[in-house]
Every structure is written in C-alpha cells, then in structure tokens.
Amino acid sequence: MPDSKQPTAPPPFDPEEYARSSESDLRVSSDFKQPTAAPPFNPEQYAKTSESALRVASDFKLTTQVSAPPLNKRVRIAVPEADLAWFEMTAEAKALLERIDGTKTLLDLMEAVPSPEFLRAVAELHDARLLAYEEK
C-alpha cells in the first residue's frame, strides 16, 4: 500500500501539452463540408441491409425470461441478509422481506396481508432475483 505521506509523483508527460493536443484533436477541420442532400435511395442496398439485420435478429436469443413467481412454493431470500442493504427497494418490499422465513409460500403470505402493495412488493423482489423458491 502506498504511503499517504509521500507526495504524488508527476505524470511522465506534460499535462498542459496533452490538454492542448487533445483539444486540437476534437476540433473539426475547416475543410469539412456538411452534405447538402441525402444520398439517393438504393432499394438493392436497402434489401441487403435488411436481410443481414434480420439474420442477426433471428440469431439473437433472449437470455432472460420473464416469469411469474410461483405462489405454491416455499419462498426464501436468495441472497445473504447482509447483502440486502445494497439493493434499492420500496418500504413494502423491505416489510415483505422481514416476513419471509423460508417456511411459507407466497400464497400463505398473501392471505395474511391481501393488498396491491403486497403484489407490487413480490414483483419487485422477484424481478430483482432476491427470492428463491423451493417445493413444499
């Protein structure tokens, strides 16, 4: 670990020169001319581009699937409780987490407190992958 009392070493380059050259690289050259009209439409090129885009799109696979949480399986918290502080969640979601002990199903918990807030809290925790489900 570096000594905090030791002064910081200067960089191996001139910072002012670096700033000047960076600024000049960003400037647009004066001989750049803005196009006055769009290029002519070429249907053949458009068809080729569309075909390749469709091929890429058809090769793409959705890596995450959206699914509803199972109401008839025991629910437990999927991460260590100490890690929950890192997640942003509503007060309702935090209250629901306090009630989850791994012995009840979501249906059991929902019957105790039937409310739209409960459903939103379940959805929030499920979507954040903070809930795990096990057979009864």
Write the layout of secondary structure elements.
Blueprint: H1 15-26, H2 43-59, E1 74-77, H3 91-99, H4 106-112, H5 116-127, E2 131-134
Antiparallel strand pairs: 1-2
Helix pairs in contact: 3-5
Could you explain the architecture of this structure?
The chain has 136 residues and is mainly alpha-helical. The chain has a domain at 74-134. Helices cover 42% and strands 6% of the residues. It has 5 helices and 2 strands; from the N terminus they run ααβαααβ. It has helices at residues 15-26, 43-59, 91-99, 106-112, 116-127, and strands at 74-77, 131-134. It has a two-stranded antiparallel ribbon with strand order 1-2. The longest helix has 17 residues, at 43-59. It is flat. The relative contact order is 0.13.
